[in-house]
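Ops channel
N.P.: pipeline sanity check, posting one input/output pair.
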């Protein structure tokens, strides 16, 4: 039985577990910060330090083969501490007071209403394809086996990072909204930090609206893809580098942890972390050269060496690229060429190619840069770092709005350093409201759809049938396939399978190898599940037997109403694993 399809906990109880987990993270972080980082007594720092360190512990436990045991211990510790620390809600009074303090009622209402919608969206059932593939599939696999399949068997599974490890805590406790809400919660605490640091509330309201008016934020807060939290880590690191006048052990350590933590949550942040880290070294090197060297060595040993060791054990021929990933270069090239919509770069970042791709754009708030009256040296430095990082992304990274939202955050904090003269005229802020209104309208639509799924399990099932990628098809397949039978899956939403699955991702024929065939011999799959009726060009066609069952037509499930309309069937074939010695060219 798969709890994502057949939940055993009521949605409201899942939400309560999520709140306790976040509260527990805050408690652990506060204990650490009160002991060492006393000057950074902010909730965002509490949440971040605890999350990064726990994720690193989970990664080390993965290396030593005790992942599930570690998840069990950490889960119950967090729940216990979360119940003790439930008064953390009172700590958010600074954020609430900071919003209420602004005299403009329209501003106050708009921001509060926006975040109420965001919170409901973040608590909804999983629906995006990546979430139901490796974002949930990897932690669920780890909880069952404590190891990952070879990177050549599950290509997308090798994209896992700290986000998937942290997600395992919520999934072990049978709640599927923990990491999604966690990322939105980190954004809320990020604004709480800015409200404490910056006293000009006119400027702060502009910064908040500048950030949340980006349509792609709806993508970032509605799934467990680990992007928003590491983006906030790099943004706050950049803020500290520009803001701090003097560097000591504490701010160097915390910035180092944030940057390395961000790079471990998602491979993409190796680029931004490297650029910010370079500027940190330039600015801090004159203070204590020996300490900086020792700190860099310590952080390298704690964060980087375990990753290198893990990658080394996963590949047969270790190369330079395997320092950061086990994926083959051709697969990384395929990822770097991915775009959210059909337009060319950089037009694809700002203009949707269809109504269904509105939430894949950054928006036009970036044009306000041309209307700034006076730019100081701090903002110039932030723009320089942003420009250099964009150049690296053009060469090595993805040109997608979900990745480039990091630069919206960077420019947003850059506005904190500008003189008040830029914000005296409220037109500067009001110019963002047409775009923010679009975000609110879409958020309201999502909220209306999600709310019923939080009330009962039956309504949750109806929501997922309509919105969650491949949910209906795999739900049907789970009933048809014997529970103890291993299946080869050409679907993407692997986390929904009740049976053990072997992914087949035919990307540049990267899985057509002897190792893949050897893995099939080991696992002895009895079925192949696909959406294809004709498998004559399949490299395993000699092993594929007769059709076991065919489903009726299923509507393609998607959260976006403009992308609905097409249908698919599920084909389940018998698979003759005993013929693997001669049904392919790979002996």
């Amino acid at each position: 039985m798969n709890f994502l399809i057949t939940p055993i906990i009521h949605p409201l109880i899942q939400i309560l577990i999520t709140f306790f987990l976040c509260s527990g993270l805050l408690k652990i972080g506060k204990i650490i910060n009160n002991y060492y980082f006393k000057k950074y007594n902010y909730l965002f720092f509490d949440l971040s330090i605890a999350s990064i360190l726990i994720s690193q512990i989970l990664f080390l436990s993965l290396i030593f083969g005790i992942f599930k045991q570690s998840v069990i211990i950490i889960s119950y510790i967090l729940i216990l501490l979360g119940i003790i620390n439930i008064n953390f809600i009172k700590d958010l009074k600074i954020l609430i007071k900071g919003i209420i303090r602004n005299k403009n009622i329209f501003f106050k209402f708009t921001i509060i209403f926006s975040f109420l919608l965001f919170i409901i969206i973040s608590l909804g059932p999983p629906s995006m394809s990546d979430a139901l593939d490796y974002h949930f599939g990897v932690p669920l696999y780890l909880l069952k086996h404590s190891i990952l399949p070879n990177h050549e068997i599950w290509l997308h599974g090798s994209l896992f990072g700290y986000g998937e490890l942290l997600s395992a805590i919520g999934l072990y406790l049978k709640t599927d909204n923990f990491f999604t809400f966690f990322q939105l919660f980190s954004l809320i605490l990020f604004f709480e930090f800015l409200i404490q640091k910056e006293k000009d509330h006119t400027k702060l309201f502009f910064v908040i609206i500048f950030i949340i008016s980006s349509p792609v934020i709806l993508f970032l807060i509605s799934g467990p893809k680990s992007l928003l939290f590491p983006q906030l880590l790099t943004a706050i690191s950049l803020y500290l580098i520009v803001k701090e006048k003097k560097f000591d052990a504490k701010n160097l350590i915390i910035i180092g942890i944030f940057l390395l933590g961000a790079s471990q949550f998602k491979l993409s942040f190796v680029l931004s972390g490297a650029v910010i880290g370079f500027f940190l070294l330039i600015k801090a090197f004159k203070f204590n050269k020996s300490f900086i060297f020792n700190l860099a060595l310590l952080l390298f040993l704690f964060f980087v060496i375990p990753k290198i060791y893990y990658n080394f054990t996963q590949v047969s021929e270790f190369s330079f690229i395997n320092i950061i990933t086990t994926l083959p270069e051709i697969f990384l090239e395929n990822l770097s060429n991915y775009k959210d919509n059909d337009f060319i770069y950089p037009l694809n970042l700002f203009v949707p190619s269809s109504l269904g791709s509105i939430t894949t754009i950054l928006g036009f708030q970036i044009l306000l840069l041309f209307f700034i009256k006076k730019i100081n040296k701090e903002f110039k430095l932030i723009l320089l770092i942003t420009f250099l990082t964009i150049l690296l992304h053009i060469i090595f990274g993805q040109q997608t709005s979900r990745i480039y939202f990091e630069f919206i955050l960077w420019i947003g904090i850059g506005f904190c350093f500008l003189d008040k003269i830029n914000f005296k005229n409220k037109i500067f802020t009001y110019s963002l409201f047409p775009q923010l209104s679009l975000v609110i309208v879409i958020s309201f639509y999502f909220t209306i759809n999600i709310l019923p799924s939080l009330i009962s399990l039956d309504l949750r099932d109806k929501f997922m049938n309509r919105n969650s990628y491949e949910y209906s098809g795999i739900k049907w397949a789970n009933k048809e396939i014997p529970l103890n039978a291993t299946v080869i899956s050409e679907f993407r939403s692997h986390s929904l399978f009740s049976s053990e699955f072997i992914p087949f991702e035919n990307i540049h024929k990267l899985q057509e190898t002897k190792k893949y065939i050897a893995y099939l011999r080991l696992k002895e799959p009895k079925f192949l599940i696909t959406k294809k009726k004709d498998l004559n060009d399949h490299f395993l066609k000699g092993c594929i037997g007769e059709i076991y069952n065919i489903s009726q037509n299923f509507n393609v499930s998607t959260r976006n109403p403009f992308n609905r309309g097409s249908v698919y069937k599920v084909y389940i074939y018998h698979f003759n694993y005993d013929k693997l010695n001669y049904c392919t060219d790979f002996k």
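N.P.: looks fine end to end. The first strand starts at residue 487 and ends at 489.
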